[in-house]
Every structure is written in C-alpha cells, then in structure tokens.
Specification:
Pfam families: PP1_inhibitor. InterPro entries: CPI-17, CPI-17_sf. This is Protein phosphatase 1, regulatory (inhibitor) subunit 14C. This protein has helices spanning about 5, 55-75, 90-95, 100-110, 115-125; strands spanning about 50, 135-140. Helix 4 crosses helix 5. By secondary structure, it is mainly alpha-helical. The longest helix has 22 residues, at about 55-75. A two-stranded antiparallel ribbon has the order 1-2. It is built from five helices and two strands; from the N terminus they run H-E-H-H-H-H-E. It has a domain at about 50-125: DNA polymerase, domain 1 (Orthogonal Bundle).
Length: about 140
C-alpha cells in the first residue's frame, strides 16, 4: 500500500451524508442584511413581484370557507375531525356539464351518511360563473 492511501485523517462521507456550511458571524445571503439573534419574523419583507386577481381569490376563499362549514354539518364534526374529502373547484370548473360536476361531487362525498343533494346543488350554483384560477403572472419580466 502507498503512504497516501493510509494517511486519511477522516473517513470519506457516504452517499447519505449531508454537508453543512457555516458562514462567518454577521454575514448573510446577498441582499438579506446581517444575521442577528433577533426573531426571524421581524426580517425585512421582500418586494412582491406577482400579481393576483384579488377579487377572484376572495371569492374562492369565501367559497372554500362555505364548503368547510357545510362539510362540518354533513359529517357532523369539526374540521379537524372531518374525514379527508377532496373537492377541487378547478377540476369542477373544467367539467362541461352540471350533471358531470354533480357526479364528481357525489363520488367525493360517498362516505357521508347524510343526504348531500342540497349541498351539491348549492355548490354548483355558487361555482357557476367562476373562472379557473390560473397561475399568477409576473410583471416586469
């Protein structure tokens, strides 16, 4: 054996090892300012560069809150105890007819022991006229 192969001071890292780098005190990422021991919540907020359709987002939020409230009634439990029910509004908006939308909703609510027809009818009425949320657009690029 050669002398070079036996003079290893530390074992070589395995494939699952992680390497951590520690910066000098007071040095942070470019543009983030110095790092100090204060609460990270108090960091300077970055400039928002994405523009959303706030009116559509607000409508969606109100609808989602209504859905959670109605599901709590249907399943007779609080939100935390509710079984996993996935109602994707964008998926519903992609479907062409109300009959197909109602069928998708009924499939999602298959485990509910209470009648769901009124909920489905009301939800379909509420999403009528809504638009599918598109990815936010970046301005200035």
């Amino acid at each position: 054996m050669s002398a070079a192969s036996t003079e290893t001071s530390a074992p070589l890292p395995t494939a699952g090892s992680r390497v951590f780098f520690q910066g000098a005190p007071g040095v942070g990422c470019v543009g983030s300012g110095p790092i100090n021991g204060e609460d990270p919540v108090q960091k300077k907020q970055g400039k928002v560069t994405v523009k959303y359709d706030r009116k559509e987002l607000r409508k969606r939020l109100v609808l989602e809150e209504w859905i959670i409230e109605q599901l709590s009634v249907l399943y007779d439990c609080e939100e935390e105890e509710m079984p996993e029910v996935e109602i994707d509004i964008d998926d519903l908006l992609e479907v062409n007819s109300d009959d197909e939308r109602a069928s998708k909703l009924q499939e999602s609510l298959i485990d509910c022991y209470k009648p769901t027809e009124n909920f489905v009818r009301e939800l379909l009425g509420r999403i009528r006229g809504m638009r599918k949320l598109s990815a936010p657009t970046k301005k200035g690029l």
